[in-house]
Amino acid sequence: MHSQRTMLIWMTLPALLFYLALLAVPLLSIFLLSFETEAGPGLDSYRQVFSDPYFLTIFLRTLGLSLLVTAIALVLGTGEALVLSRMSPSWQGIFLVVILGPLLISVIVRTLGWAILFGGNGPLSVAAQWLHLSDGPISLMYSMTGLIAALVHVSVPFVVISVWVSLQGINPDVERAGASLGANGFTIFRRLVLPRILPGILSASLVVFSLAATAFATPAIIGGRRLKVVATAIYDEFLSMLNWPLGAALAVVLLLVNVGLFSLFNRVLNRSRRRATTSLSRPEGQPT
Amino acid sequence: MTFLELNGLRKHYHSVRAVSEVSLSAERGEFISLLGPSGCGKTTTLQMIAGFVEPSSGSIWLDGQPLTTVKPQNRGLGVVFQSYALFPHMTVAENVGFGLDMRKIREPERGRRVRDVLELVQLEQHRDRLPAQLSGGQQQRVALARALVIAPPLLLLDEPLSNLDAKLRAEMQLELRRIQRSFGTTTVMVTHDQDEAMALSDRIAVMDSGRIVQLGRPQDVYERPATAFVASFLGSTNLICGQLRLSAAGMQLVVSDRVALPCPDSTGRAGETAWFSIRPEKIRLVGDGSGETGHLKGKIVMRVFCGDRWIYELDTDVGRLVLRVQNQGHPADEGRTAGLTWNLGDMISVEGGHA
């Protein structure tokens, strides 16, 4: 018994070392870096992060952007999953691939595609002018709208998958039972379906929020220098301003905010999951 | 007075005909079973009454009102699903109260009605449990309570007991009958279980290939099956086919060169092919000693003990016959040859068929 346990510990060692080397060490060095000043260790960088309204704007923009992306992706993704669950199995397969498509393309390629689409000479602008919706060329580049659209695009698949999985656990007769008891379509969704897919929606929102809050490539290309988010600001501090301690401090603050939201969310999620997963074992019937 | 009327209901999906033609009328308070094998259209018929499936043609009337185009949520019928379809995130009391909420029935009436119906199904002490914390039989009763609490004019049961084990099912049959009687709710039940149909129903509609082949009281359908299919689906039976011949002794059924069985008169004209059904419990073995030879001789190829009765399988000149005999302590041995006899009246002429 004892030797087996010892062996298990030994067996986890490679993974442990791997994490230590590739996650803990860099994190720790970033953490230490953030306290570096010209006159020995100090809180100068943090003071600057919290006092400079420039950084406050960037943090608030990142937060607002992530919240908006999460909200829009949830609505779109949940709707898509609901529609998907009503399709015949063969169409479901096709549309799942279509929905997951964005994840199969490299983030750079995908974002550059958006850049072409959004540009002043891009198809979107041309179409808008042709339809007389706009007098001159319009560009969504370096705009919040464009940034949100691009981030929503990559976030929706995560929501669809997560909600789709929780929809699979719902007995299709439940909706009919609701109808027979007098509930209309909206009430059936709100009182019978939504509570059951809520854990799926919440866990999707967690994933989407953290992806949006830490996204780099998309904000860098579509937001550019005009719409800096925390991730691009960190990049700039490190590589353009060469102020490594300030970049590190920004990274640490971003991480802490994320972890804080994460654990808060997790608590809500667990509470809702506890209720929703005490589900019925579904008897297999032979409908005639 | 007719309370529920199904008028020439049909349903086809593309080229597949699920229900070819179903017409039925039920009295107020009546318990009617739609009985048939898988794919006979019984569930589709029930779903058309519930409003989940739109009929391709035909009409449904309830208490003189047309129901055919009314949405399910406006029909106000009680439906119990085979899977129960309880709301897993709601407690027993919340499940039962759901239909009352939809009807905007407020406290204290809401609470009183939930309590009353839970008492009726004997689940009052489990009102705060979640469905997953209940046994199958309890879940079944919650489903029933949830359907009954809205005081529906019509109760629809889709294989309500098929997910329960045999002992519980027998108990629930009695329970279901008691509850249905005390509410007096007109009920249509779909089942493939003939015992369930016979135990519960005022009338049984035996369905096959999308239509009702026979409709009647359980004992009538059992004793006087109209077709070979009904005879073999409702209970087990022995089917004998032959040609009718009029002899000096009366009408005879010629099964083969060697066998001619006496059969009831007025079952058909001489020369016609006829099918007869004889229930296993109506056939008697006659011993060597009694001097009686019976209508047929047969060799016992197998006997099965069922506690209160023995089941014998005999090889005879008309084929394999099955007998069910009360256990009186002196079973006949396998391999023995015995005479078989029955009352002529127990030979039921049925419409022939594939069975």
UniProtKB/TrEMBL annotation, chain A:
It is found in: Cell membrane. The chain crosses the membrane at residues 7-34, 54-82, 94-120, 140-167, 197-222, 242-265. Belongs to the binding-protein-dependent transport system permease family. CysTW subfamily. This is ABC transporter permease. Keywords: Cell membrane, Membrane, Transmembrane, Transmembrane helix, Transport. Residues 59-265 form the ABC transmembrane type-1 domain. Coiled coil: none annotated. It is a multi-pass membrane protein.
Automatic annotation (TrEMBL), chain B:
It comes from the Bacteria. Transmembrane segments: none annotated. Pfam families: ABC_tran (PF00005), TOBE_2 (PF08402). Gene3D superfamilies: 2.40.50.100, P-loop containing nucleotide triphosphate hydrolases (3.40.50.300). PROSITE patterns: ABC_TRANSPORTER_1, ABC_TRANSPORTER_2. Residues 4-234 form the ABC transporter domain. Keywords: ATP-binding, Nucleotide-binding, Transport. PANTHER family: SPERMIDINE/PUTRESCINE IMPORT ATP-BINDING PROTEIN POTA, SPERMIDINE_PUTRESCINE IMPORT ATP-BINDING PROTEIN POTA. InterPro entries: AAA+_ATPase, ABC_SmlMolc_Importer, ABC_transporter-like_ATP-bd, ABC_transporter-like_CS, Mo/tungstate-bd_C_term_dom, P-loop_NTPase, Transp-assoc_OB_typ2. This is ABC transporter ATP-binding protein. Belongs to the ABC transporter superfamily. SMART domains: AAA (SM00382). GO terms for molecular function: ATP binding.
